[in-house]
Amino acid sequence: MVKCKCWALSTKKDEDKLLEDDDSEQIIPLDQIIPPAIVQFLDDMEREKPIRFTSQQVRIATGSFCSILGSGGFGIVYKGIMSINKYVAVKVLNGTSNKRIEEQFMAEVSTIGRIHHHNLVRLYRFCFEPSLIALVYEFMVNGSLDKHLFKANQGEMIGFDKLHEIALGTARGIRYLHEECAHKIIHHDIKPGNILLDSNFCAKVADFGLAKLCNREKTHITMTGGRGTPGYAAPELWMPLLVTHKCDVYSFGMLLFEIIGRRRNMDTTLGDSQQWFPIWAWEIYEKNQLKELMIDCEIEEKDLEVVERMLKVALCCCQYRPENRPMMSVIVKMLEGLLEVPEPLNPFTHLFSGSNQPNVSATRMSWNVSGSTWSSSV
Description:
By secondary structure, this protein is α+β, with helices and mostly antiparallel strands. Helices cover 37% and strands 13% of the residues. The chain has helices at 12-23, 30-33, 36-45, 55-61, 98-112, 146-149, 160-180, 246-261, 277-286, 290-296, 304-317, 328-336, 350-353, 362-366, and strands spanning 51-52, 68-72, 75-83, 86-93, 123-129, 132-138, 184-186, 195-197, 203-205, 212-214. A hairpin with a 5-residue loop joins strand 8 (195-197) and strand 9 (203-205). Helix 7 runs antiparallel to helix 8 (246-261) and helix 7 (160-180) packs antiparallel against helix 12 (328-336). It starts with 11 loop residues before the first helix and ends in a 12-residue tail after the last helix.
């Protein structure tokens, strides 16, 4: 990582100076250099919570982009500072397609920019100029969950008490997106790399570049091409099937498997039976051999109850048919221990004998209604 001094926009005078500098340059109407749809979108968003930044303000906040936090297909994330002791993460979008960048920018700003929740990363500011497209987020000092789950040194692993809190916080964040926002928000890319951790290891769902807003009245959405990350994306995202918010539930289940195993679900360095953790975990559960799981995953006896609950929830979430997956409000209550987790069906029968599964029970049918009306006595 390159280290250097980052300057903050700490006073009103600094910002006024930047505006004066900007005024000295030749002014070109926005609608001549930025698509009209984007101009209208930016005008609308200025009436919402995030504040618009100029490219020069972003460069000052990041010290001319000198400290890199990470990178990916979307672009590069830099560390910056907005005011005294207020650090930020600045995501600079880039790619080969301007249209794709614009879509990702609008997806992130229009979703996370309008809402606020304890378990969702907060968007402070944004910039959209011909020379720079950037999003300014709150800085998460402990980085992403994947950096802690997949460490080589087992002694540095997060304990299961804290991992359970992270799983629960993630579930609460997704529940808010699905069931508590004015518009239902489908994230489409739940995975450890998109779960950020603050100084107290509180989980915050991040990266809304693939997110999609939809009216609550709509039961499904139309997809144009696959979304999400292979290995976490639900089957319906890659097949000609109806897509609902339950695709996030499937991805959350895959995330739970990686939390339980503290390893990537696919590991070709292991024996054939353990290469794909979810199906090995199902076989262990089906044979009632959780002791073997505890030994292989270095789970202590005191954590057995919480790990078994998380495993059963993961198996319920990863059902092939979306209607067999519980809603996030139900998942939260099961993880909290307020609801008993029913015996899960085998999520992987479709891999061996087609996609047929047993008829769903009344309990699983109730998963598709509001969590507040769900009862373990159904």
